[in-house]
Structures are given as structure tokens and as C-alpha cells.
Amino acid sequence: DAGVTQSPTHLIKTRGQQVTLRCSPKSGHDTVSWYQQALGQGPQFIFQYYEEEERQRGNFPDRFSGHQFPNYSSELNVNALLLGDSALYLCASLFMRGAANTHTQYFGPGTRLTVL
Amino acid sequence: QKEVEQDPGPLSVPEGAIVSLNCTYSNSAFQYFMWYRQYSRKGPELLMYTYSSGNKEDGRFTAQVDKSSKYISLFIRDSQPSDSATYLCAMSAAGANSKLTFGKGITLSVRP
User: Fold this and answer.
1) CA–CA distances in Å: residue B32 to residues A1, B26, B92, B101
2) Which of B12, B18, B2, B15 is nearest to B89 (CA)?
3) Contact status of B82 with chain A (Cβ, < 8 Å)
């Protein structure tokens, strides 16, 4: 049973460029959340997608956008990259329609983004 | 002030020691409390999940929540070198399926 997968593993971009990160949820999961983890910090919530719609959003600018596809996979897009966007981007999935005690968020290994 | 504060690290202990990891929070709406473990170059994995106040035990791990003091703890008994990792506390107001607010994390090293 495949867990949460993310691609690419590493990415180097320059300021002003745009980037797309991809996430495939754990088998049977229907919800994807994205988090940004700067070096030495805890993950910060960006947004969550369920039924192809943004369900919740954290305090991130509109440069951060996302999408969820009918197969529940998701993309995170970041426009006009800044040096401060350098971080590990984590995707987490869960099965929203399950019982409350099954709402464990499973994290992928992340995509390391470096902005030069 | 950050919503979730976690004791600064790093922390180094000998094998077999009891480890205590702590977090405080300011948002009284938090009702769901989690501890995640993150190994180097990996995503966080859930260790313990507690709803509201109380204690929960799972093997060598015990999680405690004191909502009146806005304080949560994770105890690791008989620590092993394989416990060496970064430990993150996380909290949510709306449920474990919603936005999680994490602490900064503390890096634990268990010396053989």
C-alpha cells in the first residue's frame, strides 16, 4: 500500500519564477493538505483540498494556489517566487468521510524547494 | 506571541532515560492535540493523538494534556537510539482532519 508520494524531491528555482509541486495521497484518502516547513521550524498550514475545492486556508498570500484532481491528487503552485519561499513543502492526506477517530493526517516526504 | 510554543532544543540523553517534551499554547479553542515524530529527510509521522484533557499511553509513550494550564507533554520511557528524531507538537480547534498548528519542534538525540 503506497503512502503519500510527492514530486519532485528537490527543486531549485530563481526569484520571480513559478513552481508546481505534486502530491498523490495515500490509497483510499480523499483530502490533501499542504504545509510549508522552513528550516528549523514546524510545518505551517497553507491550505486543504477536499472534493476538488479549497476547504481551509492558512495565512499565505495569493501567490500560493492549489488544485485537486478527480483522482484526489493535488498540486501546489507558487508564483513570483521569493527567497523566503525556500522550504520543505509537505503534503498530508486523510480520509475525510471516515469516522472522526480515523482522521489521521499522513505526511509525505516533502519537496525541498530552494529559491536563489 | 506564537500560538504554540515548544521547549527549545536540542536535547541529548543516554539510552534508557525518561524524556519529557513539552508545549504550551495560547489559543483556548484548541481541543485536539497530537505529537508527531520527524526523522531526517522524512515527513512527520503521528505518534500520539489526544482529544481534550487527560492522559493517553501507548507502549513507551505517554501523552498528557492540561487544558486549564494550556500545557501538553510527551513522555518517552526507556528511550532508545532509534527515538533520535525531531518531535513536533500539533494542535487543532476543529479536529485532527483540519488545519494543524505546529510547534517549532525539538531535536532529541539518544546516546547508546
Assistant:
1) 28, 14, 5, 10
2) B2
3) no
Among positive and negative, which fits the CA dihedral B50, A25, A68, A41? positive
Q: Which of A70, A39, A99, A88 is nearest to B51 (CA)?
A: A99
Output the nine-digit C-alpha cell for A4. Answer: 503519500
- Residue whose C-alpha cell reads 484548541 in the numeric block: B30
Nearest residue, CB atoms, A31 vs list B46, B97, B103: B97
Question: B30 to each of A10, A71, A102, B67, B96, how far by Cα in Å?
Answer: 34, 32, 19, 9, 11
Q: Cα distance from A5 to chain B (closest Cα, Å)?
A: 10
Over residues A5-48, the pLDDT tens digits come to: 999 999 999 999 999 999 999 998 999 999 999 999 999 999 99
- Identify the band that residue B72 occupies on the pLDDT scale cut at 50, 70 and 90: very high
Find the closest chain A residue to B97 by CA distance.
Answer: A103
**Residue corresponding to grid cell 522552513:** A38
